[in-house]
Specification:
Helix 4 crosses helix 5. The protein has a single domain, classed as Helix Hairpins (Orthogonal Bundle). With 150 residues, the protein is an all-alpha fold. The chain contains five helices and no strands. The chain is flat.
Length: 150
Amino acid sequence: MFVNTMPRYEILSEDAMANLDVAAPQALADVLQLRAALDSSREELEEVEGELRRVPPKPVGPSSADPNTPTPTASDALVQEIGDLLFAVVNLARKAGVDPGTALDRANRKFRDRFEAVERLAERRGVEVERAGLEALDRLWDEVKMAERT
């Protein structure tokens, strides 16, 4: 009876063993590359934080040509650091098997949908979004976010 409860181990063919010899190092290399990309993203974020502490940003307003493009008020160093961060995060996405464009499209859609839900909730409660303070909008945002999880 004891023998029947012991795990069974299959004897692998030489071809299967050769595949394991190749696959195991590749899997380890993939994990190490992913970890390196994650570490790189963290380092770049720290550099952005350092630059923001060094030179606090000026208020950003929309440009006349494209309302989604901020006017150039950031320092060249901050622009460089944020560019490095974006590059590192795109690399992280690729290493994790995520298409960065798809991920960004989904994040933009989620933000838009959530903001529209905040506007609807504010309207139902008689809150003017344009006049509401940041704290009030944050509370509405958190409420919408919690409702998404349920």
